[in-house]
Amino acid sequence: MAETDRFYVLVTNDDGPFSPGLWLLYDSIEELADVEIVVPETPKSASGLGITLHKPLRVSRIEIGGKQITTINGTPSDIVYVATSLKRRSFDLVVSGVNIGDNTSIQVILSSGTIGAAIQAALLGLPAIAFSAEVRDPTQLEEPDMRYMIMSFAKKIVRRVLSKGLPRGVDILNVNFPSIPTSEVEVAAPAIRRFENKLVKRKDPRGLEYYWLYGLPVSPEEGTDVHSLLVKKRITITPISLRSLLNVRELIDTVRHELLEN
Amino acid sequence: MAETDRFYVLVTNDDGPFSPGLWLLYDSIEELADVEIVVPETPKSASGLGITLHKPLRVSRIEIGGKQITTINGTPSDIVYVATSLKRRSFDLVVSGVNIGDNTSIQVILSSGTIGAAIQAALLGLPAIAFSAEVRDPTQLEEPDMRYMIMSFAKKIVRRVLSKGLPRGVDILNVNFPSIPTSEVEVAAPAIRRFENKLVKRKDPRGLEYYWLYGLPVSPEEGTDVHSLLVKKRITITPISLRSLLNVRELIDTVRHELLEN
Lengths: 262, 262
Description:
Two copies of one chain form a homodimer. By secondary structure, the first copy, chain A, is an alpha/beta fold. The first copy, chain A, has one domain: 3-Layer(aba) Sandwich (Stationary-phase Survival Protein Sure Homolog, Chain: A), CATH 3.40.1210. In chain A, the strands form two sheets. A nine-stranded mixed β-sheet of chain A has the order 3-4-2-1-5-6-7-11-8, with helices on both faces. Chain A has a two-stranded antiparallel sheet with strand order 9-10. In chain A, α1 links the parallel β1 and β2. The first copy, chain A, is globular. Chain A starts with 7 loop residues before the first strand and ends with a helix. Chains A and B meet through α2, α3, α4, α5 and β9 of A and α2, α3, α4, α5 and β9 of B.
């Protein structure tokens, strides 16, 4: 196959260049496509779909483990725009991850930098897959069984999407790996919430108050992505359709009727 | 009416305490409810649903024009969580804005701090309304006709939602005011995109390259919120349903069939 006939895939994440999740993804798919790695300089968890308009973006090339990669002092969303602007060929697929920590529920999906990158890709009409793992510690990704689960499934799903495209009506596949290696897969709808957000007050050494925001897991509802991942411990796929946000014909009539005509 | 029987409304924005849009909203609704103003210290445009997990949040009380308000060194999403955690009563409604610049299309809706706050409120089960105006310059909001359009419509819609709730199936009302004062209102579905994101390369005084990311408007498609606002110059309401993201039963079957069974 000629060089230019090969698929061309953008790999990004929100954890930066030194996340083992990034390299797992790269190792999974490098035989399937030419891979461009473009990531934030520093971790950007929970950056959502934020875009950097107020400050200049710096683009650097660095080499890690023999592979040239690009880092940007921006968010995962920035990266999709910068990478697609700077590249000569258009990407066949954008993959994001593997995130340290799962990304399940609408609450987390819409706040996640990992999925933010995938949503920005989808807005550009590019197929996108986000990968995350229910781990707290990056080293958990390097355990042989975990590595095997992630690499074999990522390879399978990327190969499928490269050759046949995303399933009809789907804009983004959001894939989460459980903390215990498995081969069982479930496709599930997103829960609304994953966390109850909490606030804790502290005092700094000067006696001034400050707060930390953190999340306590809510008890997972059966049939949701959160339940499939955390309770059933399955590889969990949440299909995301941006187009579903467009199917508001009925809502429009309701709003017209209830809000404007009365 | 006893003090505690009054409605209790959180007003926030992504432009900070000195945006005239904030005060327009406050002036519109203060006679309808007890109003708590909690805003980011500094402008946080395009912060999306980003949440601040990595750094401490500082909460300050300041007085502007005789009104005590709270500022937080965080995103609009942070503010919803901090404000709901610190308050004794629960809010009957969260309103966000009036943003300097419109927030139309899925692309902008999901990246907007103004709407990010409304989405976080909706995830907490609180009714939410986001207000934005198609202006570039904050002073445009202070022109008498503009002020009249915004105040009278904001008051009408807030009164309606406080007394009867949001229309069935709607989680967030996204209201955009056109650059030319009008009384005409249209309810529309979101366009997919509002901007084509562009990148421009510059050199700093030391000769090092950097980039600015910016957006060029795409030509608005009829029937969308972007068209209603920018071309027809109507007050435009985009209803948003987080629940529509849950209606993926059909997608789930497709993914199962196309991705896993073959």
